[in-house]
Amino acid sequence: MASRVTECPSYGHPIQSQPGSSTQSATKKVLDTPEILEMILARVDMRTLLTSAQRVCRHWVNLISQAPSIQKILFFTPIKDSEWGVGEKTINPLLRETFPSIFPAKDRGKHHELNFSDLTMNKDTLTMFRFVRKDASWRKMLVQQPPISDIGLFNVSHGMMGDHAVSSIISADKKMQESGYHGIRMERLFELLLTLHFSDFITVRVYWSTGDLESFEWSFDNIRDELHRIISKFGLVVYKRAVIQCSMGGSSPNATEMIKKEIITAYGEHGLDFISKRKDIQESQGEATSFKGEGQHSVYFPSSPPAYETFPSTFTYRTPLSPATVE
Q1: Where is this region: Disordered (predicted)?
Q2: Where are the domains of the chain?
Q3: Is the pLDDT of residue 39 over 50?
């Protein structure tokens, strides 16, 4: 026998019910009560809230998108420090799963590097399309609760003239803030990483105050101490290290650089102007602080040879990156 169609509570959108079921059943009464339904949905995992739960009916869609408690659980709305435990910080679990090498992980080696090859979006063309679209949910998600206000940048060059470091900050996206989306969102962090150049001679890592602050390979005391200081200050730091040496040719792009270029190409194919985004990130960079390495020089011996950046012709000493050099 065919099932009878009733209305989704208060919104005139159909849902299915079985013949003979009471419209005043206990289940319906619960689902008809927004406060109770909100409490139930607040216990559902993030992925379900973003996908299948919103296919039930328009009432559920509106509740999920408007209920403050659910929006905080989904990392769309900032949690105030007063609502959280003192000093407690929580990384966005869905983003950690989707962008693994960007976020801290207990089972990862201390000397990990950023690796775009582990991104879910690389699965196939359709998955890439879903990820890069302008309205993708990950773009507006906070990377952490309570939210991070700025991203620290820390760039180290090691060459014949010694170690040289430059630190600065990248502020949150101005347009998002004007739309009410305060704090560092995943779009800002991810697109900052897309502005960097990757090769076998450059090391890029993302450090979090919630991660292992000792996972820093080597440098002079003052450089290491400054890195730890800005990690503690900002909670999130994009770190880049290049070893400069003489070379007759340029460095070849590695797998991460190639994937990065594919992502930027996908941006263009779906109407997203990455050049404008890169310019906005460059203009949002705060004043830089530059200093040379001093004090004790601690050495870390990696399991594989260190990476060296090469430059054309003779040796050239270059101040470490502004956050963006897309080639």
Answers
A1: 1-28
A2: 27-74, 89-292
A3: yes
